Amino acid sequence: MNLHPLPHRKFINNLRSIANITDNLSNACAPATSVSDWVSEEKILEIARLPSTYVSDLGSWELRKTIADLYIRRPSHPIDPEDVIVFTGAQEAIFALQISLLGPHDEVLVVTPTYGSMMSFLLSLKIKIIEVPLSQENSWKINVSKIEQSLTPRTKLISINFPNNPIGVDLTPEDKGELAKLSEKYNIPILSDEVGLWTKSQTDLGNWKGDALSSYSDKVISLGVTSKSFGLPGIRLGWLIVRDQGIREKILSVKTHLSICSSQIDDFLAVEIFKRADEILVHHNQMIEENKTKFALFCKKHSHLFRYQKVDTGVTGIVEFVSSLDVKEFSHSLAMKNQLLMIPSEFFYLPGNFFRIGFGAKNFSEMLEKLEDFILKTS
Length: 379
Ligand SMILES: Cc1ncc(COP(=O)(O)O)c(C=O)c1O
Hints:
13 strands; Aspartate Aminotransferase, domain 1; alpha/beta; 2 domains
C-alpha cells in the first residue's frame, strides 16, 4: 500500500524547510491550555504514581462514560458509553474505519471540502470518490438531495465533515434528520467527522453539549477528538460512536494492528479534563468568537485583499483572497518574510482563492499585526 501524505502536512513541511515559521494563522485547534489549568496537582500525581499498564482496547469505561456525556441525549438514539471506541487521535480512528470498511472496487461519497485524511486514503487505494462539493452560491450549505442523486449501488460509505473544515459551516437539525433517513433508506453508513462540534458562539454552561449526527440514527458513525473544540492536541485521544456490531468488530481487529489501546496517562487525564468540559468550552468559545470578530474587522479594513463572512460554528473559517496574486505565492512570501503560516484552502479540497483561518490562537491579534505589516510592506 502506497499511502499519499496528507496534502496540508506536505505543504506545511515543505514551507517549514525553507522558512522559519513562528506562527500559524490556519491552526484548527481551540486555544492551547495546559493540563494543569484543568486538572489538580493531586490528580496529576495520582496518575504519575499508578503502575503503568495497558487500558482496555475500547478505552477505559470511565472515559467512555465521560465521552458519552459530552453529547445531547436524544431519546430515539441516545449515545451510551457502550457505543464509544477510543483511539490514539482522530487520525487513527479515521484510518481504522476506512481500512475496515473499504476495498479497491468500492465507491465512497465525500462531501467536500473536507479534512485531508478523508480523501488521501481513498486516493491512495484508488477507491472511486464521488465528490459532492459545497458551493458558495448555496451559502456552503449541504445539499442532501444532491447526495441522494449521486449514490450508486457500489457506494459503501458517505463521508461528511461538519462543522466543516475549513469553512466552519454546520448542519441544521433538519439536515441531520434528512441525512439519518438517507443512511437508513440506502443502508449506507455515514462517517460524520464532528471534531469541531462543540465550537459555537453563545456557549454557556447550560448549552455546551454537542448534537451528534449519530444521535439521529444507529447507522451514523460520529468522530470526536480532544484536539479541536477542546484545544488539547497534546492528549492524543479520538473516538468513534459506532453501534453496528459487525463494524465495531472489524474496527477493533484493525486497532489491534495499530495502537491496541491508547495511553493510560491520556485516558486518565481526559476523564479529569472532560469533567470540566463546560468551563473549558465557555472559555474557548468566547475567545474564538472574539477572534472571529477581530478578523471580520481586519478584512473590512483590507477589503481590497480579503473577503470574509463570519460563521458562528467551527474553529476554522475561510477568507477569499481577492487579489490577482496566486494564494500559494502569497502564502510562500508571507512565510518567508513574516514567518506567518496561512494555508490555501485547496489542501482541504476547496479549489479557488481561499485561505483557511484558525480562530483559536491566544496571540491572534499579534498574528493579524504581522499580516498587516506584510501587506503594508509588499503593497
Ligand atoms: C476535521 C478534522 N478531522 C480530524 C482531524 C484529526 O485530528 P487529530 O490530528 O487530533 O487526530 C483533524 C485535524 O486537524 C481535523 O481538522
